[in-house]
Every structure is written in C-alpha cells, then in structure tokens.
Amino acid sequence: MAHHSFFLSLLILSLAATQGTLAVEYAVNDNTGNSGGGNRFRNEIGVDYSLQTLSSATGFIWRTFQQNNPAERKNVQKVTLFIENGDGVAFAINNEIHVNANYLGNYSGDVKTEFTGVLYHEMTHIWQWNGNGQAPGGLIEGIADFVRLKANYIPSHWVKPGQGGRWDQGYDVTARFLDYCNSLRNGFVAELNKKMRTGYSANYFVELLGKTVDQLWSDYKAKYGN
Ligand SMILES: *[C@@H]1O[C@H](CO)[C@@H](O)[C@H](O)[C@H]1NC(C)=O
Q1: 96-100, strands of its sheet edge to edge
Q2: How far is the CA of 100 from the centre of ligand 1 (A)?
Q3: I want to staple 168 with a disulfide (CB 3.0 to 4.6 A). Which of 101, 116, 138, 153 is the partner?
C-alpha cells in the first residue's frame, strides 16, 4: 500500500512537471502612459481581464482546431500582450499581440466585447498554421475571424452570410464562407488547419469536401441568392 501511494505520488509529480513545462505563460505590457485610450483600457477592461481572455482564447482555439495534445500545437511558451498608443486595430508578431489603445479609446460601443473579439482573432494568428508561408493571406485572416465568429464575439458591421466578392477576400467574408464549408463537414476548419502545418494547396478543399474552392464559393453564393 505504501508502495502503491509512493508510485502514485511519483506519477502525479511527473504529470505536474510535464504540465508545468507545457503551460503557456501570459503577460500584459501597458505602455500607454496617460493616453485617453490607456485610461479607457484600465477603467473598462484591465490587466486581469486581459490575462483571463488570453488564456480562454487559447483554450477555445485549441478546441476549435481539435488539437487535443501538445504535439499537434505550435510550440509557444509565452504570449505577451502590448497595449500601446499606435495605429490601426491590432496585430500579432513573434508571439506578441499588439493592441492600439487609440482604437479602444475611440471605439463607440461595448469596448470590452470588441477587445475580446480582437484578442480571439489575434490569438488565432499565434496558434494557426500558415501553410509554411504559402497559404493565401485572405485565408489566414478568414480563419482568425472564423474563430472569432465561433466564439460569438463578432461586431455588428460584419458582412452577412453570402456577402462578399471572393472566397479569399479575407476577414469576415472568408470567415462566413469557411463557416458554410464547416457546415458541410463538421471540423472542416480544424482539418484544413492541420493540413496547413506543412504547406498549402487549393486542393485541400477538394480533399476535404469533394469540390473545388471555386465550386464551393458558387454553391455558397447560390444558397444565399447571390
Ligand atoms: C482617438 O484617436 C486619435 C488618433 O489616433 C488619438 O489621437 C486620440 O487620442 C484617440 N482618442 C482616445 C480617447 O483615445
């Protein structure tokens, strides 16, 4: 019995050690000084909420991509969020997410929900595969917005299903189209992302759905009467 619990403790210890090395660390760097956007970030969002959201976004993305074990995921140990007085909305680079405080400061509406959606989008860039640099940029952005759509954090100005000019237009247009593809085969986006670990081919759509991406786009437009 003593033997038994000794080995059990060893097992638990080594599990804890493995989890420890695999856990992702998060940090927030607020470089906004006394700007209006920085004040709004601290009053209406805050560092604690940001840390929670970075962590919950990661869990959601791993589930959406069906990456149940670490070997399937990108090897990222730490993600740092920078809140800064910049331009545009946000971007992700080198396991960093940069959010523009001026954007937050000027946002009309629920800034916390918008911030959350932006983090889900940017965090997807941290974790998604990019076809070894060969995937179309519009697809990369579309997958990031697909995750945001599935998490239910999309803004009201998004296109409606069926709208847009090209499947790889990016962002909301491509996210809506991927959602249609995913409705034809549950887990389609997860499988597409898995294939994009090593490269990219438009033929991935044929392999997963039996039709070319152009045919799928026409079917999608026809479904919504466009
Ligand atoms: C709104 O954006 C402008 C331009 O980026 C910036 O100078 C200003 O400080 C912003 N307002 C707030 C409240 O953040």
Answers
A1: 25-30, 78-84, 96-100, 90-93
A2: 10
A3: 138
Q: How far apart are CA 104 and CA 129, in angstroms?
A: 28
Cβ 142 under 6 angstroms from ligand 1: no
What pLDDT is stored for residue 226 in this prediction?
80
* 38 Cα nearest atom in ligand 1: 14
Determine the pLDDT at residue 18: 47
Exposure of 39 by Cβ count < 10 A (0-12 exposed, 13-18 middle, 19+ buried)? Answer: middle
Strand partners, 96: 80, 93
pLDDT tens readout for residues 103-113: 999 999 999 99
| Structural domains of the chain, with CATH | 1-127 (1.10.390.10), 134-226 (no CATH)
